[in-house]
Amino acid sequence: MDDLAGFLRRVKFEGRAGGVGRREVGQEGRAAATLRPQPPAMADAPPEVLELNVGGVHYATTRETLLLEPDSLPAAALNDPDHPRDARGRIFFDRDGVLFRYVLDYLRDGGLVLPECFREHKRLAREAKHYRLLGLENAVREADPRPPNRERGCITVGYRGSFAFGRDGLADVKFRKLSRILVCGKVTLCRDVFGETLNESRDPDHGLADRYTSRFFLKHSFIEQAFDMLQEQGFKLTASCGSGTAGGAAELKPGVDSEENRWNHYNEFVFVRE
To answer: What is the pTM of this model?
Structure first.
């Protein structure tokens, strides 16, 4: 009995000792775990994808893109905690939101690519200057196909014509016939736009540099060609007017086709280049 009691006491004592050892090992493991460096929480990490609000138009980009030009305004706004932000925390620029797409493309690619129909070079150059992007400003000025010091002014284009109606009493208009396209305005502007297609025989040059005329006309009768030439030189249509008269058969001259002169009309278009 004494031997059995002694054996039980030894087993109980060793069990306690083993428990203490396990507890000490567990505490050491937890201490080591607390000392191991932990990755930062997502809420504390700086966001790599940023949202911008430019004049109400929203964009998404990365921090790396905005910092590609360290001296630019977008880079300065990113590092400035006092820069204006909207209600959702987006960096706010009170500028043209549509044109900013070209600013952001320049920051992404380091170059400028504009659509063929782009006509706002001066406005985009102004935006580039505001954002302190000298490279973009120079690229916009080089991409502008219009001369920087071209003359401003107004040109009026008018034409007389007639509508040809269908035969056998049909009332549908088949085509129009233009007899002459008239050009009025400053002589230097008219020559700049129409060049060799301008007929000056009715109003020869008298040596006056700032002379105006209302007697020029074009050597062709294609009104769309005249419009294309005006558009290529930066003119925009600002006003137009038209009138028409219905003529009878008794009013026609001998040998004139009555079908082509049943409806006569005169139209004028005012183009301005600023």
So the answer is: 0.46
